[in-house]
Design goal:
The protein is elongated. Strands 2-3-1-4-5 form a five-stranded parallel β-sheet, sandwiched between helices. Strands 6-7 form a two-stranded antiparallel sheet. The chain has eleven helices and seven strands. Helices cover about 50% and strands about 10% of the residues. By secondary structure, the chain is α/β, with parallel strands linked by helices. A hairpin with an 8-residue loop joins strand 6 and strand 7.
Amino acid sequence: MALVVICGQPCSGKSTAAACLAEALGDSESKLTVRIIDESSFHLGRNQSYANMTAEKNLRGVLRSEVDRSLTRDGIVVVDSLNSIKGYRYELWCLARAAGIRYCVVYCDGEESRCREWNQLRKEKGEEAYEDEIFEDLLRRFERPERRNRWDSPLFELWPSRDGTEKSSPAIADAVMYLTKKVDSKTREIKVLQPTIATQNSRFSEANSLYEMDRATQEVINAIVEAQSQAVLGGPINGISLGQGLPTFDISRLVGLPELRRLRKTFIKLTGQSSLSGPPPPTDADSAKRMFVDYLNRELGTS
């Protein structure tokens, strides 16, 4: 359904924003399932996760993998973390595009001085807080989201240190409307990301389709090799039949096994790619053989 990326400086009110958004979505008429993914989901501490670049990279990898597993067309996933690097936000956007769902960024824009105050207040209350060195490093490296970037758009901005954050906050209300509004052919303000060949998992990877395609094309190759081995001096071979109801084809020249293997590999690849935007690949042997024979006739110039 949707992926929401919560973005902001450390101690800027991101977790509060995520909770308010989840509550507002729960109160909406759509009654969507909302899941919040954050560091605490994996029992990872703030200082432990950002102690060095290696630990931070591992954290991003864990969060990204969990997001990838959790994305569905009937639920909303909220990533409650710093998400401070634009390259990482781009990776999350790619996951949403591959899933064919909506995507947005909720940015908690906090004043640095107020973020420091909130971090210090956590220390005084005995709550988990950032060490000063880690906190300042995260502030320095934070990359603000920009609306002109497709992976930062649409962008809903909150100012927790100035206005506070509630489920009725304008930015929260706008995000809920964007995430829950029904889309039809006339809708322009809601964008559902569309997968491409580069991001979509091919339906051709299904075990049955792959097995039938592989077996059927290999049987065609075996028939051609057998017919050529019985031809006199490699002469033309007329009307090789693969079974009742299947097309026949003629070979006007000797075709070596390496060339046949290359054609077979190309055919399987093209079939898998075309299935992304068209009908699924054949799941039975006869249909696969028919398609492969037509392809060979076309490529070898005998049709």
